[in-house]
User: Which sequence fits this backbone?
């Protein structure tokens, strides 16, 4: 493993930033969730890389990656259910048009 | 430039390229499929990092469940096949700037840490990562509580999602 | 003869020394050898696939009291090649409204999701792609790719039948994945490992099919559902949605879906063999005797494995050509209300009993596991019988309210 | 094996609590079955643990215990766990016995099997039922209306006690402590229909709360200093040395401050002066049972806690050195409480109140013993006292029950708890009499036979032998008073002739009440024999001094047994026998309160402590609220200011309206401002767009800006 840890971290940072960009710039609510998934994966890359590079005997990194999986699954299930529910009522999934809380 | 580095760079390029496509592509289905590609790249990274269990679970959970859910949701929330018009907000440059700033800041901080420049040591001999992960998840001395909390969270999300998506049946 | 004992390593060692002799760097040599290995494995699978077309057609003909292909070549053996030529020279249509990239990606993914399974299929103790320590999960992960291929193909066709078929297929696959994953844990528990090699070795004394026949049954049912074959062939139910997700596909793209399905069925036959019938081994300890030591030979093992896989494939075909298609709500109900709970019960039973009985001598352990499965099976059948009786009663005397609705 | 059972010890009562509350509230027999069964299970487990503990050599250093990680706090874990060391083993022994005894006793006390009362309502004591039998009607006791609820509460109480005893850390100990506080509130106010019970419940809760707050402060101090709450961590020698040598406030070391704060918790829970006022009022609860909880078990928890924390309190002190400040305070409070409460008990006429003050006094003995460093003596007296005081309370409940029976039978309206309405019960209630007598003798320290003698004698010996003469004298006087009022009580209650018709018709209570009495009486006698000092003349060494070796092993080094001396033994004999004899002599002919020369107002009124507190704290608070805040501040100052402002505003408004508003605002600015505001509002409301991404962009922008500022300005 001749790759320095910083490469993984930079990759994760880049993935995180791309995901953040997606979250902030996409119109479609589903696309926003896609961005969130990218961000969660960036976190997971960090967790696993730290596990491998710093302390492989301690499984904390992998365990929390597993927990992030669970959280991601929960988040997608609830998020998509909400989006579908909103779509049924308002016939739109554009985040900017879901502005009942306006003013 | 050793083989190791090439083996890292190929999936890394796949991940970043796919991730960029996820956020800029116009067709939402394509975005979801690019997400699959990006997540597959992450699975490859896990395999490179010798976290074989996570690699396979990544494929099972993300591609087998989450991506499929996304595609379903995309299909269920439209009346026509194609996405028309701009898919990004008009002031997309601000998020781009923010993302860039965060990236630059993080890279700056990461490079500033000499400890992060080290290559990884070999895994300790006799470490069965799969077995010790399993033990860690259910051992009371380790992470059984977070693990149980996560399972309760999943159950709650399951019930909540079913309730929300069912809607009120009069 | 080292070649007869370990053909793969023998050949790869020979090629490695050959390539070194040409002055190539070691990293490149490794890459080339892996590449060649992968190619050989894939070629083997694809050639087998062609043969499977013939088998399928021949067997279905016998089931339906026909002769099957018999004109081209001896016993019609050349018929598949004629089919291939026909498919290749047909017009390759991409519908106008289709999403071109995805439309072409679908069939590729479909066959790829099957081929990658061959990476972990242990053909013999020496001939195998890779011995993953998470092989059982890998099987599920590959299934996820299969799901993806179908939804991609169905969506990209821009055809309502295709989309409906894809939806049905995905609902089917995602649902039946759950009992499948649960049941896959049973060989894992019994062998104390997720590696298919370890699972095979663990069955050298006794097949897991005997230790947990219910698990075998559940795995078989969910495998058939995963394949989308009759009685779960709702994705291409001709009488309802014409041809389902591959309605728009022609020529070789259709051929890939078709070939993928056949190979998938055979591969699942192989996994049934590995997980429940001892794979390439499982001779009940016979191979330890001096006169039967030839059973340890790689080629003998490969033949044994392929025979067992073919048997599994044949059972899947048998079911396909004997059962009518079931309704989609019945299919989902069957999974969620019957198969999933049953698989959980079997899992808990196996987990508890394998600990409790571990102190017993071998035959006591086997007997205990087998009897517990029989008991669970009997209770299940009784519950089903009671349920069916009640159902028939309500259907025979419908209440006035139900008639009104 | 043992450690798993320890985890399970508190569980059955908790399950029984939930089962009764949730499911079996209507089924009285099932409820008490569940509760007694649960107590029985815990009893079984406790006995198993105790017997296993006896079999372990040098148990003090090989204790049973296990702990799990509970809450991650940064890089470390907050652990919770259980342990049984010699101290908790003996405590768990008496807790298991007394809890089981109360549970069984409660069945009889709440008149299980009797008919429903005529006028009984939930929240008031049952008041008798009329039964027609063979053509004539008569009154019988009636069953408690909230029977099941009572068992639920005492189950929860038992859970709290077990949790406290098996805890290996201050956190779960405090958890059990607070559960018992809650249960004590619920049980004192069990008959919430009586105003006195309501007030007593609130008083008990509030008073103990004062102690608990200080105790929590102490726990927080421990945690912030040592980073751990488990006893094994805190009591490490290095840690204790550090604690003892770190100066904190008021010239005390950290250990001293922590010890004082925790001791205030004990003062509240174990009703030491000056927070003793709640305990006598707690006798408002269902007569013997909640009283017994407040005598044998819960108040013992306070003493148990302070004994448990003894290594911390005595950090830096070794036997022979002068006491440190904390220990002196503890010794003073204990000795003072012992004397002071005993003096009040002399003049009480209510059978239960005498015992309540006696409890306070005896707890004072234990606290004083601990204060002078007599660790084993304090623990010994804790155990023996729990047995004989439980016995006395249950006995007094039995007496009251018997007299109540007489009251119902005769229809006479007499107070069944006033000792002057009794007399001559010896023949009516023989079992109660004999067990009560045993308990009373044990309380007075009747020589050689009773457990109380041995434990009290050990305290005297330690006090005298280590040169704490003042404590010794005070305790001796208190012990004399103890013997005196005990004999007064026995004489008034059981001896002589019945002084009322009700007493004349009293009858022995049912077996569910007498069996616990007999069992406890056995312990009240026998438990003293395990701690006979080695050098005691004649008897010493016949039975090895098991208790000292066993409990003393809890400490890092075994405390020395104090040498034998005739002075404390002679004192002990004199005060016990003398007090008993004087009590009998004075009261054998007393017929009514008028003939009792000890009905001095000061004693009768408990040295006016309730009145003093009323005057010092409650009156001023009420006065401040009613007079100062409400009348003066609110009605005169604030209202006056407000009225003035209002008048001034009216004037000002009028002026403005005439000279400013109409000409300037309306005509010049008026509509202009309106349109400006409207325009800016229209502009600004765009910020409140209701669009989630808008908010996210804004917040992350701010985040990035602050990160940059932070980095460039601060780093």
Assistant:
């Amino acid at each position: 493993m001749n790759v320095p840890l910083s490469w993984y971290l930079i990759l994760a940072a880049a993935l995180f930033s791309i995901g953040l960009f997606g979250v902030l710039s996409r119109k479609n609510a589903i696309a926003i969730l896609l961005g969130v998934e990218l961000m969660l994966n960036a976190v997971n890359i960090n967790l696993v890389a730290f596990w491998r590079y710093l302390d492989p005997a301690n499984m904390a990194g992998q365990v929390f990656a597993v927990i992030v999986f669970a959280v991601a699954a929960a988040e997608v299930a609830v998020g998509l259910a909400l989006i579908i529910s909103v779509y049924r009522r308002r016939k739109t999934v554009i985040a900017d048009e879901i502005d009942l809380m306006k003013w | 430039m050793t083989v190791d580095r090439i083996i890292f760079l190929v999936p890394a390029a796949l991940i970043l390229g796919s991730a960029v496509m996820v956020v800029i592509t116009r067709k939402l289905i394509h975005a979801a499929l690019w997400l699959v590609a990006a997540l597959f790249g992450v699975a490859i990274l896990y395999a490179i990092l010798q976290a074989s269990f996570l690699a396979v679970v990544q494929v099972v959970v993300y591609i087998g469940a989450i991506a499929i859910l996304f595609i379903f949701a995309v299909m269920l929330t439209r009346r026509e096949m194609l996405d028309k018009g701009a898919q990004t907000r008009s002031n997309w440059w601000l998020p781009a700037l923010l993302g860039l700033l965060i990236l630059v800041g993080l890279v700056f901080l990461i490079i500033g840490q000499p400890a992060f420049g080290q290559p990884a040591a070999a895994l300790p001999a006799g470490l069965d990562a799969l077995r010790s992960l399993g033990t860690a998840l259910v051992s009371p001395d380790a992470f059984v509580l977070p693990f149980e909390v996560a399972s309760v969270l999943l159950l709650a999300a399951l019930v909540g999602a079913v309730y929300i998506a069912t809607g009120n049946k009069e | 003869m080292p070649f007869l004992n370990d053909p793969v390593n023998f050949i790869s060692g020979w090629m490695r020394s050959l390539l070194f002799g040409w002055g190539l760097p070691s990293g490149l040599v490794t890459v080339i050898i892996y590449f060649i290995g992968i190619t050989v494995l894939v070629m083997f699978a694809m050639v087998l696939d062609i043969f499977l077309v013939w088998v399928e057609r021949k067997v279905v003909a016998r089931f339906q009291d026909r002769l099957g292909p018999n004109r081209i070549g001896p016993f019609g053996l050349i018929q598949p090649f004629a089919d291939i030529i026909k498919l290749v020279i047909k017009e390759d249509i991409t519908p106008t409204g289709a999403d071109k990239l995805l439309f072409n990606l679908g069939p590729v993914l479909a066959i790829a999701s099957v081929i990658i399974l061959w990476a972990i299929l242990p053909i013999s103790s020496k001939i195998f792609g890779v011995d993953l320590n998470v092989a059982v999960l890998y099987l599920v992960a590959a299934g996820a790719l299969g799901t993806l291929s179908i939804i991609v193909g169905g969506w990209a066709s821009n055809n309502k039948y295709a989309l409906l078929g894809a939806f049905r297929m995905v609902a089917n696959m995602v649902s039946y994945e759950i009992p499948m994953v649960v049941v896959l844990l049973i060989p894992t528990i019994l062998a104390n490992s997720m590696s298919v090699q370890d699972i095979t070795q663990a069955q050298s004394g006794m097949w897991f099919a005997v230790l947990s026949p219910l698990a075998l049954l559940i795995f078989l049912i969910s495998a058939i559902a995963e394949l989308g074959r009759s009685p779960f062939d709702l994705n291409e139910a001709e009488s309802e949605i014409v041809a389902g997700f591959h309605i728009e596909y022609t020529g070789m793209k259709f051929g890939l879906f078709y070939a993928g399905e056949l190979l998938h069925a055979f591969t699942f036959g192989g996994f049934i063999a590995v997980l429940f019938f001892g794979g390439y081994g499982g001779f009940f300890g016979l191979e330890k005797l001096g006169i039967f030591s030839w059973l340890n030979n790689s080629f003998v093992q490969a033949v044994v494995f392929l025979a067992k896989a073919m048997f599994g494939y044949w059972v899947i075909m048998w079911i396909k050509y004997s059962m009518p298609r079931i309704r989609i709500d019945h299919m989902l109900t069957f999974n969620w209300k019957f198969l999933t709970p049953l698989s959980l019960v079997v899992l808990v039973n196996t987990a508890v009993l394998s600990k409790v009985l571990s102190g017993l001598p071998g035959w006591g352990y086997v007997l205990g596991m087998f009897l517990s499965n029989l008991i669970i099976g009997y209770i299940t059948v009784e519950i089903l019988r009671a349920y069916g009786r009640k159902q028939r009663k309500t259907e025979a005397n419908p209440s006035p309210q139900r008639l009104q609705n | 094996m043992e450690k798993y059972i320890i985890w399970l010890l508190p569980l059955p009562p908790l399950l029984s609590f939930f089962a009764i509350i949730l499911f079996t509230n209507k089924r009285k027999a099932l409820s008490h079955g569940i509760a007694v069964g649960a107590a029985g299970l815990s009893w079984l487990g406790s006995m198993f643990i105790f017997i296993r503990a006896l079999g372990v050599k040098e148990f003090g250093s090989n204790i049973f215990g296990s702990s799990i990680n509970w809450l991650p706090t940064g890089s470390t874990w907050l652990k919770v766990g259980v342990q049984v060391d010699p101290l908790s083993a003996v405590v768990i022994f008496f807790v298991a016995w007394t809890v089981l005894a109360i549970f069984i006793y409660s069945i009889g006390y709440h008149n299980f099997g009797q008919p429903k009362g005529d006028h009984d309502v939930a929240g008031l004591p049952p008041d008798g039922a009329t039964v027609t039998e063979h053509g004539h009607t008569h009154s019988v006791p009636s069953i408690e209306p909230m029977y099941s609820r009572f068992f639920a509460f005492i189950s929860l109480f038992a859970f709290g006690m077990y949790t406290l005893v098996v805890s290996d850390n201050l956190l779960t100990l405090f958890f059990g402590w607070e559960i018992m506080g809650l249960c004590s509130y619920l049980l004192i106010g069990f008959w919430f229909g009586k105003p006195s019970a309501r007030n007593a419940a609130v008083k008990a809760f509030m008073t103990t709360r004062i102690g608990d707050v200080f105790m929590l402060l102490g726990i927080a101090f421990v945690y912030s200093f040592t980073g751990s709450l488990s006893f094994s961590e805190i009591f490490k020698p290095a840690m204790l040395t550090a604690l003892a040598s770190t100066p904190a406030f008021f010239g005390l070391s950290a250990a001293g401050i922590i010890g004082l704060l925790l001791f205030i918790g004990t003062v509240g829970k174990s009703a030491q002066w000056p927070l003793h006022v709640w305990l006598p009022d707690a006798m408002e609860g269902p007569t013997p049972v909640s009283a017994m909880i407040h005598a044998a078990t819960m108040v013992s928890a306070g003493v148990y806690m302070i004994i448990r924390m003894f290594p911390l309190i005595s950090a830096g002190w070794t036997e022979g050195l002068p006491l440190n400040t904390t220990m002196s305070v503890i010794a003073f409070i204990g000795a003072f409480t012992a004397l002071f409460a005993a003096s009040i008990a002399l003049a009480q006429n209510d059978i239960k109140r005498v015992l309540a003050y006696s409890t306070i006094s005896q707890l004072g003995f234990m606290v004083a013993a601990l204060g002078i460093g007599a660790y084993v003596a304090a623990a010994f007296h804790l155990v023996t006292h729990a047995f004989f005081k439980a016995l006395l309370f249950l006995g007094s409940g039995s007496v009251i029950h018997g007299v109540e029976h007489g009251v119902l039978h005769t229809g006479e309206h007499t107070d069944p708890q006033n000792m002057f309405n009794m007399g001559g019960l010896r023949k009516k209630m023989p079992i109660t009499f004999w067990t009560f007598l045993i308990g009373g003798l044990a309380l007075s320290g009747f020589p050689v036979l009773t457990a109380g003698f041995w434990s009290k004698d050990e305290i005297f010996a330690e006090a005298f032998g280590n040169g704490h003469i003042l404590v010794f004298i005070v305790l001796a006087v208190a012990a004399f008073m103890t013997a005196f009022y005990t004999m007064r009580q026995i004489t008034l209650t059981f001896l002589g002739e019945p002084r009322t018709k009700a007493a004349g018709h009293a009858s022995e209570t049912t077996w569910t009440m007498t069996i616990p009495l007999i069992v406890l009486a056995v312990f009240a006698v026998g438990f003293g024999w395990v701690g006979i000092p080695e050098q005691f003349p004649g008897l010493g060494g016949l039975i090895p001094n098991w208790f000292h070796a066993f409990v003393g092993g809890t400490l890092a080094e075994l405390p020395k047994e104090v040498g034998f001396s005739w002075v404390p033994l002679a004192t002990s004999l004199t005060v016990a026998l003398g007090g008993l004899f004087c009590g009998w002599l004075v009261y054998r002919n007393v017929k009514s309160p008028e003939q009792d020369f000890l009905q001095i107002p000061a004693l009768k009124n408990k040295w006016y402590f309730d009145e003093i507190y009323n005057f010092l704290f409650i009156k001023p608070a009420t006065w401040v609220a009613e007079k100062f805040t409400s009348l003066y501040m609110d009605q005169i100052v604030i209202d006056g200011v407000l009225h003035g402002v209002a008048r001034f505003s009216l004037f000002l408004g009028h002026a403005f309206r005439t000279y400013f508003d109409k000409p300037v605002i309306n005509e010049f600015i008026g509509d202009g401002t309106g349109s400006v505001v409207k325009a800016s509002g229209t502009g600004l409301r765009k910020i409140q767009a209701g669009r989630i991404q808008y908010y996210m962009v804004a917040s992350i922008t701010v985040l990035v800006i602050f990160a940059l500022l932070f980095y460039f300005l601060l780093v």
About this structure: Residues 34 and 79 of chain B are 22 Å apart (CA to CA). The two ends of chain B are 66 Å apart (CA to CA). Chain B touches chain D at residues 89, 91, 94-95, 98, 101-102, 105, 140-142, 145 (CB under 8 Å). Chain B has two domains: 1-83, 129-170.
